[in-house]
Specification:
The complex is a heterodimer of chains A (595) and B (164). Chain A is of the alpha/beta class. Chain A has 24 helices and 17 strands. The relative contact order of chain A is 0.08. In chain B, a hairpin with a 2-residue loop joins β3 and β4. The chains are: A alpha/beta (595), B alpha+beta (164).
């Protein structure tokens, strides 16, 4: 039998899958067979590689050569030139946008070289549907160590020493949560994994579940041992079908290997995990609401105390950890808490995964050590803002978070430092916005989201968010009144201090932080009835500025309503009776001539 | 389990009622199983008419208020019929920043279809969903199970015309 000479690590994450990685796989397989390389070149479909912007992507190991935007038509050339003759195909390699130089190896590409992989250490190296791949990278060694050699106190001691804080956003020390649940009285206890990643613009947990599901299951086994629980649930959103599928495969495999069920690895310890699918409710990311949902009720939060560590699911002591938190646990147990705490800042240890998206060149998933500056995240890794437009702000923490403007870009990534500038670490969504984004409209967008997702149980959140939304909508429609800003501030404070759960308590953050840094935009909307970013259609006049119009006709060609009159060598005219204010002329115009 | 009285409903055939009975008896004794029952029933009927909710409530031995409460709380469940092709437009932040609003407006202009609505001929129904987690492809649209990335207003009609 031939030995495998090259392993093709083809990304099969949601991003690459929808850009056609499955077709690429079939084409590659066909070509490999045709050239008689079947025994020498293997294909592994991995989970999300992280560099979603240039998908479908593939890494050729052991050389580490990175190919991007591969199409099925490229398969023949790749196989013949690279895999048969040993000449890599430069055409499909990454080019540094700054100097157009080709960078063949993945580790040398700036997007990857500034990262440190811990929670995502296996991404792109294993087939997430093959448990042997995970075991080959020290998988389930930590579970074995925890079950056979460590006491619950030993495990909690390591966790406390690691300084790992909840990666879902709140940042509560994971070890402390576990200690409370361990000390709680009760014969039945539960370990829950929060995979209800609801923040819009966040996809870290999805990627971890799709690329390395066993690491989360192993983390749960260790947590179960620490608090003496025998049953666990992974609460996963139904919007993530691939993650659910891979989790179920992983659980079945773990059961077959005796890594879940009775007497795990001969330790006498029993633990079982089940996937519970959510049904589309943002508030179920809140811990008490999530537990109500598993109980088959409306996902509404309840007041704390009693805390879930004492009375959680079915009123039994329960711990709930986020996907990323649990994915970090096996390595902490294997290498020690001190090792984990060796990177990071004084109060925030280890690494954090961010989902970088919006107006940034390199959209994708990145993991950086705590203490890295936001500037490094946006510019060195993200490659900055595309199309020569200007950076405006980066939104961290989704609907509970806030904006970080240009002047605070040197803030280090650290739970406390980020909240000082008015944003939150959050679960890791980082949405970059350029100068074409209107901050009032952005605040309106988040409030629309929160208002829609508010469960309606407590009045401040239910009514307050509705009133805030009305004020913001009026501003965007050009109906803002003097005094609206002050009223907005007052309402935000009330909602923040009197809501029942985290959703309401943080709901005003996007408004407050945009008011703090972009108050002038709010004022323009109210007093001048203009939208500086020209995003709010009601405040765009839809007239052509004759001096700026270059008579190119792009707006005419792009108008879906046939509302634009244009002939060669004449200035375009918009017929306002036909105009549907869709903004397509504005987007098409390269000369900023639409007023 | 044979549930004695089966209500008449144009969208539910006798075979579908058999499947529903199977679903109910499979979950009946599992505590907290309303959500999976509703999910599986919606998969076969494509939506949850009120007659079905009453039937589930009787079959599961749960108050109708609880079944109805759960069905209306979660956005995954629909109490009105869906079109032959279901369009999901992502309204997450990245898609919003990248212009999903214009895409939605274009769909409305062409098919007179709003978020949460169904066209009169039941060809399409459209729902706005919170982040699909594919921000790298923003703006994203899913038709049935096909994912489309970078769906600009200009491209959307061409894509949808493929679905009859």
């Amino acid at each position: 039998m031939n030995q495998i000479r090259l392993q093709l690590m083809l990304c099969g994450g949601t991003g690459c899958d929808s850009t056609g990685s499955e077709k690429v796989r079939i084409a590659l397989l066909h070509e490999i067979e045709k050239q008689g390389l079947s025994g020498e070149v293997g294909i592994v479909v991995t989970g999300c590689n992280g560099f979603c912007a240039v998908g479908p992507v593939m890494v050729v190991q052991p050389e580490g050569i990175f190919y991007q935007k591969i199409q099925p038509e490229d398969a023949a050339e790749l196989v013949e030139s690279h895999f048969l003759k040993g000449i890599p195909v430069q055409r499909l390699m990454y080019k540094n946008p700054a100097n157009k130089k080709i960078i063949p190896k993945m580790d040398d590409i700036p997007f990857f070289s500034s990262q440190l992989f811990r929670a995502m250490r296996n991404k792109g190296f294993i087939d997430p549907e093959v448990i042997e791949d995970y075991i080959a990278r020290d998988g389930y060694f930590a579970a074995s160590k925890a079950l056979n050699e460590m006491s619950p106190d030993d495990i909690i001691k390591e966790m406390l020493e690691s300084g790992l804080r909840g990666r879902g956003g709140a940042g509560f020390p994971a070890g402390m949560k576990w200690r409370f649940a361990k000390e709680a009285q009760g014969d039945v206890k539960y370990v829950l994994c929060n995979a209800d990643e609801g923040d819009p613009g966040a996809f870290m947990d999805r990627s971890i579940l799709e690329s390395d599901p066993h690491s989360v299951i192993e983390g749960m086994i260790i947590a179960a041992k620490a608090i003496n629980a025998h049953k666990g649930y992974i609460y996963c959103r139904s919007e993530y079908p691939l993650a659910v599928k891979r989790l179920n495969i992983a659980i079945d495999q773990a059961k077959n290997y005796g890594l879940l069920g009775e007497d795990i690895l001969g330790s006498g310890f029993e633990f079982d995990v089940e996937v519970y699918q959510g049904a589309g409710a943002f508030v179920c990311g809140e811990e008490t609401a999530l537990m109500r949902s598993i109980e088959g009720k409306r996902g509404m939060p309840i007041p704390r105390p009693p805390f879930p560590a004492h009375k959680g699911l079915w009123k039994k002591p329960t711990i709930l950890n986020n996907v990323e938190t649990l994915a970090n646990v096996p390595q902490i147990i294997l290498k020690g808490g001190k090792w984990y705490a060796s990177v990071g800042t004084a109060n925030s240890k280890g690494t954090k995964v961010f989902a970088l998206s919006g107006d940034v060149c390199n959209i994708g998933l990145v993991e950086v050590p705590m203490g890295t500056t936001i500037r490094k995240l946006v510019y060195d890794i993200g490659g900055g803002v595309p199309d020569k437009r200007k950076f405006k702000a980066v939104q961290l923490g989704g609907p509970s978070g806030g904006c970080v403007p240009e002047q605070y870009l040197d803030t280090p990534i650290d739970y406390e430092e980020i909240s000082k500038v008015g944003a939150i670490m959050g679960s890791g969504g980082a949405i970059v916005m350029d100068n074409t984004t209107c901050m009032v409209d952005m605040a309106r967008y988040f409030m629309d989201f929160i208002q829609d997702e508010s469960c309606g149980k407590c009045t401040p959140c239910r009514e307050g968010t509705k009133r805030i939304l009305t004020l913001l909508e009026n501003m965007c429609k050009g109906k803002g009144q003097p005094g609206d800003i002050e009223q907005l501030e007052e309402l935000c404070e009330v909602v923040k201090h009197s809501s029942l759960c985290g959703l309401g308590q943080t709901a005003s953050n996007p408004v407050l932080s945009t008011l703090k840094y972009f108050r002038d935009e709010y004022e323009s909307h109210i007093f001048d009835k203009t939208c500086p970013a020209k995003t709010c259609p009601a405040l765009v006049k839809f007239e052509v500025e004759p001096n700026k119009c270059k008579m190119c006709g792009l707006c005419f060609k792009g108008c879906p309503a046939e509302a634009i009159k244009w002939e060669k060598k004449s200035v375009a005219v918009i017929d306002k009776t036909k105009c549907i204010k869709c903004m397509s002329c504005y987007d098409k115009c390269k000369f900023d001539a639409i007023m | 389990m044979k549930n004695s009285i089966r209500p008449q409903h144009p969208d539910i055939t006798a075979e579908i009622w058999d499947t529903i009975d199977e679903i109910i008896s499979k979950w009946k004794n599992t505590p907290g199983s309303v959500i999976p029952v509703l999910r599986e029933c919606q998969e076969v009927v494509r939506y949850l008419p009120s007659e079905l909710l009453m039937y589930i409530s009787r079959g599961m031995g749960l108050p109708l208020s609880q079944v109805f409460g759960v069905a209306t709380f979660y956005s995954f469940f629909s109490l009105t019929p869906k079109g032959r092709h279901n369009i999901k437009v992502c309204t997450g932040t990245a898609c919003y920043v990248k212009g999903i609003k214009e895409t939605i407006n274009r769909i409305y202009g062409k098919y007179n279809l709003k978020e949460g609505g169904t066209t009169e001929d039941r060809r399409f129904s459209m729902e706005g969903v919170r982040c699909l987690g594919a921000c790298g492809l923003a703006p994203v649209m899913v038709v049935n199970k096909d994912i489309y990335g970078a769906v600009s207003a200009d491209k959307v009609v061409q894509i949808l015309e493929k679905y009859e």
